[in-house]
């Protein structure tokens, strides 16, 4: 659509929603069902009215400098009547007010457009609701004059045109400011410049770029600066991160660049943004959902004016207008220039940002930070697990009418695990048909119950229901994809408990369309080598540009020692423990300062901790524990200040092995007592076979590459600046192997000890 063209749907969404936010789950017809029901209504009308009736009538009109376009579902000039058809499930009187007002607004727009086109003075507006289960229709009718419709619709067009004018002014000012934008520091260093130039080229050309840039490159600014400079080439920039600290870094980078005007939105999880945890998102329970749409226009305008919309700012604006901050943040994504959010907002099956790209045809530039995490995160998004325990747990909370369908699922569990011994795991070629049918029947029964009762399932049941829905949806994928990309297995656990998993190993098939629809994607991290690994695993386009930025650091800054006499293989751990503890203890005594030591598990960490405490009681130890809360994690990091002498013990791949910044004397050395290889077990071995079939290098793709990426991330905590010095001790003989050494940073000068 041209810039000043707007669809009837978009106009009405903007101007005509009223009343409460109401996100009570209501089952809706599938898109395919909806199309069939529209077709069914059109056939009824044609049968009744013959050639007088026209379906799907394209309309357009110009007003206030915008072109309004849309397609009315039915038009009968002899009455004259225009129809808008909506399919639904459940009770029509339970339909939220904001949805009903939206539907009326749409048919009013069509009525106005037809009055103007046909020069009619009055028209009959029909809102046709088709019950997807009953195949019956309810028709709501209003009679309008052309003058009244024109008064209403021209006011809406004017309101939207005013908003568009504001957006246009903002965009022009932003592009002019971006053209003048200067890098916030005197100069970029060489690596940073290389990265920035390549990001600029990718943004200009609409190409994907996979960039490995070591710690210290200043990646965030090197990506954001050229992205903003090239912003005339795309509509939205999404800075996507794996973890909360990544979001903070992106926001800090944007603050430093200080481009003005620029609307920046930070999306955080609903659980963190919610002001009424435990309440449901509708006006009867949450005061911030009450009248949400009535106050949204003023809140939206105020938020847009404010421009800097991190979580705190959104909370303030939302409080000022008494609306929900989380759903305000979702609304503001539509009007933002830059959105900073977790990966799942774009890559998850129902990701908001991806849905907006599809809906609006935006050209989106994706900046994907810490991208070595993306494969695992995407696997989790497209995997699913069900346990029999969950099945039993929800039974107590489930409405009686649904017990029968849940029992049928439980019977299928019995069949599924019957041939298995306790503790036995079995790989399945696909989900057993009868099991899947029972799950689908359960979903259908839940939908029916919600439709008939007009109520939502209780919250814990709803979670279980969504897991079942997700599993049923995944099971719809082509058999070939399931066989190639997934491991399906069932395990019989003790006392009748069992678990069924659909484990995704190759997320590329899900991610590739997400990259395709984007204008360009810059996928960057300090650890992506070898580059073919993430390129193929993530499903990046063949023509993705690959870039390895040289490190700004030199070998003299970091002494790296491989201890060949130590083995941390599980079978050797007890024997090597005293020698390993001696290396750590002696280093800490010889060069006092702050150190971090990384282990493969908490058990191993605790063994080392006990022996260190006994043999080196003078060392101040600070150990990571399982399930640390956010404030405990912050306290752990705060324990490493420039004047302290602290030895932190942590698990490789955990909260302290990446994403923390301890420059200068805050960290002078690291010990890595593991290669980070995922555990050898039947699931990982099957994953290896899956990788082997796909890439021909299953061991490296499953174990070696992911493990070494974690090692390099952890060791990368030591040297953060060109003025830093320190040491890394690699406490395992396998680090001396050629295939492992080639995965370590090429600027390291490694001594074999
Ligand atoms: S404040 Fe919480 S409960 Fe209320 S609408 Fe927002 S997210 Fe829902």
Automatic annotation (TrEMBL):
Entry keywords, A to Z: 4Fe-4S, ATP-binding, DNA damage, DNA repair, DNA-binding, Helicase, Hydrolase, Iron, Iron-sulfur, Isomerase, Metal-binding, Nucleotide-binding
GO BP term, pick one: DNA repair
Keyword hit for Acyltransferase: no
SMART domains documented for this protein: DEXDc2, HELICc2
Keyword Transcription on entry: no
Ranges of residues in domain Helicase ATP-binding: 178-428
GO MF, one example: DNA helicase activity
Similarity-based family: Belongs to the helicase family. DinG subfamily.
PANTHER family per UniProt: DNA REPAIR DEAD HELICASE RAD3/XP-D SUBFAMILY MEMBER (PTHR11472), REGULATOR OF TELOMERE ELONGATION HELICASE 1 (PTHR11472:SF34)
Protein name per UniProt: DinG family ATP-dependent helicase
Phylogenetic lineage: Bacteria, Pseudomonadati, Pseudomonadota, Gammaproteobacteria, Cellvibrionales
């Amino acid at each position: 659509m041209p810039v000043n063209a707007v669809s009837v749907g978009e106009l009405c969404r903007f101007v005509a929603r009223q009343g409460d936010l109401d996100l009570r789950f209501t089952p809706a017809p599938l898109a395919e069902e909806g199309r069939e029901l529209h077709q069914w209504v059109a056939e009824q009308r044609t049968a009744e009215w013959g050639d007088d009736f026209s379906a799907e009538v394209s309309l357009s009109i110009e007003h206030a400098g915008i072109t309004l376009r849309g397609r009315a579902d039915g038009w009968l000039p002899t009455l004259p009547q225009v129809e808008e058809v909506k399919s639904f499930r459940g009770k029509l009187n339970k339909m939220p007010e904001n949805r009903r007002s939206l539907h009326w607004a749409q048919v009013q727009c069509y009525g106005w457009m037809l009055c103007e086109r046909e020069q009619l003075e009055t028209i009959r507006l029909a809102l046709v609701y088709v019950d997807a289960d009953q195949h019956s229709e309810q028709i709501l009718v209003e009679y309008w004059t052309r003058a009244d419709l024109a008064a209403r619709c021209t006011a809406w067009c004017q309101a939207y045109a005013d908003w568009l004018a504001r957006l246009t002014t903002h965009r022009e000012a932003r592009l002019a400011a971006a053209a003048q934008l200067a890098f916030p520091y005197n100069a970029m260093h060489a690596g940073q410049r290389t990265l920035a130039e390549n990001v600029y080229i990718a943004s200009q050309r609409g190409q994907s770029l996979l960039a490995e840039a070591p710690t210290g490159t200043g990646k965030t600014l090197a990506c954001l600066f050229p992205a903003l400079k090239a912003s005339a080439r795309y509509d939205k920039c999404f800075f996507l991160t794996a973890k909360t600290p990544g979001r903070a870094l992106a926001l800090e980078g944007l603050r430093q660049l200080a481009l003005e005007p620029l609307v920046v939105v930070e999306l955080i999880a609903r659980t963190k943004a919610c002001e009424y945890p435990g309440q449901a998102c509708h006006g009867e329970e949450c005061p911030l959902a009450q009248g949400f749409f009535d106050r949204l226009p003023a809140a939206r305008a105020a938020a847009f004016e404010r421009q800097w919309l991190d979580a705190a700012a959104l909370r303030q604006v939302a409080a000022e207008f008494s609306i929900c901050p989380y759903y305000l943040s979702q609304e503001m994504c539509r009007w933002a220039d830059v959105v900073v959010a977790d990966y799942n907002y774009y890559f998850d099956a129902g990701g908001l940002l991806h849905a907006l790209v599809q809906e609006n045809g935006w050209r989106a530039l994706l900046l994907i930070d810490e991208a070595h995490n993306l494969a695992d995160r995407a696997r989790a998004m497209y995997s699913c697990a069900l346990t029999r325990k969950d099945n039993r747990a929800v039974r107590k909370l489930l409405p009686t009418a649904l017990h029968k369908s849940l029992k049928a699922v439980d019977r299928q569990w019995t069949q599924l695990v019957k041939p298995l011994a306790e503790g036995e795991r079995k790989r399945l070629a696909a989900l057993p048909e009868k099991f899947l049918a029972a799950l689908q029947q359960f979903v259908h029964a839940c939908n029916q119950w919600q439709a008939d009762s007009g109520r939502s399932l209780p919250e814990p049941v709803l979670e279980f229901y969504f897991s079942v829905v997700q599993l049923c949806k995944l099971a719809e994928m082509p058999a070939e994809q399931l066989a190639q990309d997934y491991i399906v297995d069932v395990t019989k656990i003790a006392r009748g408990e069992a678990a069924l998993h659909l484990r995704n190993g190759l997320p590329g098939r899900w991610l590739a369309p997400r990259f395709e629809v984007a204008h360009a994607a810059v996928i960057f991290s300090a650890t992506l080598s070898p580059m073919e690994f993430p390129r193929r695993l993530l499903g990046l386009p063949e023509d993705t540009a690959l870039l390895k930025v040289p490190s700004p650091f030199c070998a003299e800054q970091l002494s790296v020692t491989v201890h060949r006499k130590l083995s941390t293989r599980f079978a050797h751990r007890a024997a090597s423990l005293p020698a390993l503890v001696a290396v750590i203890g002696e280093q800490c005594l010889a060069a006092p300062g702050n150190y971090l030591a990384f282990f493969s598990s908490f058990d191993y960490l605790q063994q080392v901790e006990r022996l260190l405490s006994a043999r080196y009681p003078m060392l101040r130890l600070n150990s990571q524990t399982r399930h640390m809360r956010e404030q405990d994690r912050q306290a752990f990091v705060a324990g490493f200040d420039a004047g302290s002498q602290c030895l932190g013990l942590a698990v490789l791949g955990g909260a302290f092995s990446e994403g923390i910044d301890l420059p200068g004397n805050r960290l002078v050395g690291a010990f890595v007592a593991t290669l980070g290889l995922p555990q050898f077990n039947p699931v990982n071995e099957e994953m290896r076979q899956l990788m082997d079939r796909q890439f021909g290098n299953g061991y490296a793709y499953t174990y070696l590459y992911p493990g070494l990426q974690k090692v390099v991330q952890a060791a990368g905590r030591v040297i953060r600046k060109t003025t830093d010095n320190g040491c890394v001790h690699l406490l395992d003989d396998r680090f001396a192997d050629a295939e492992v050494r080639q995965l370590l940073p090429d600027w390291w000068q490694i001594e074999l000890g």
